[in-house]
Amino acid sequence: MREALAADVPFEIVDAVFAISCRSVPVDHAYALSQAVQSALPWFAEENCAGLHTIHGAASGSGWQRPEGAHAMLQLSRRAKLVLRLPRRRLDDAALMIGRILRVADQPLRVESLSVRSLSRITTLFSRSVMLAGANDDCAQDEAAFLAAATGELGALGIDAVRMLCGRVTPVATPGRIYQTRSLMLAGLSPEHALALQQRGLGAGRTLGCGLFIPHKDIADLRSRSD
User: 135 and 54: one domain?
Assistant: First the structure.
């Protein structure tokens, strides 16, 4: 296991980054991937600080466009990773996935190696999908309502963001229902609040890839993003 942990960042919560071999997954693969991870790591769903980053390829490039549609498949490059946000004490448990083949909606995904990435003190953060706890689907469709609900949840965590920008609506399908989520960027956080938000997340659906934040270099218009 290779660890790359910044000396000035608390180590309690980290990203476990798995190299994988997988040709493709459904574009909306959050539920299928979550179930595959839970089959290999039965404790994952019950671990309070655990979360799943969904797998993303390039949005576009060389004329290639990200596929759309409920049954579309996302073709993965050799650089694609499976990333879990975990308490550091769970790393050895998570490493037991190495060498296993997970089934993600009937697609084989082989877990090959593990490295560790620390959280960031960068003060602009981005989440591809935020599912606000208790908010209905109309909230996700209405930008102003979504931002107001996000502000309320951030306030409950004691976190202030100078600027907020929400982006595209992304459905996350499960057997029980389809959740409507939005991307969200926050800027002007203090380093302490940035770390706290990465550690705790925002809203619901952490094991479905929702509410997990990653560092971002700027606050460009998210409406142009398709990943």
Answer: no
Enclosing domain of residue 34:
2-118
Q: Which residues of 169-195 are buried (b: 16+ CB within 10 A; e: fewer)?
A: ebebbeeeeebbbbbbbbbebeeebbb
* Kind of pairing between the strands at 2-4 and 107-118: parallel
Last residue of a domain, one of 83, 118, 153: 118
Please state, for a pLDDT cut of 70, what percent of the chain lies above it: 85
Domain count within the chain: 2
pLDDT at 78 over 50: yes
| Confidence (pTM) | 0.86
Mapped to the 3 state alphabet, what secondary structure does the chain carry? CEEECCCCCCCCEEEEEEEEECCEEECCCHHHHHHHHHHHCCCHHHCCCCEEECCCCCCEECCEECCCCCCCEEECCCCCEEEEEEEHHHHHHHHHHCCCEEEECCEEEEEEEEEEEECCCCCCEEEEEEECCCCCHHHHHCHHHHHHHHHHHHHHCCCCCCEEEEEEEEEEECCCCEEEEEEEEEECCCHHHHHHHHHHCCCECHHHCCCCCEECCCCCCHHHCCC
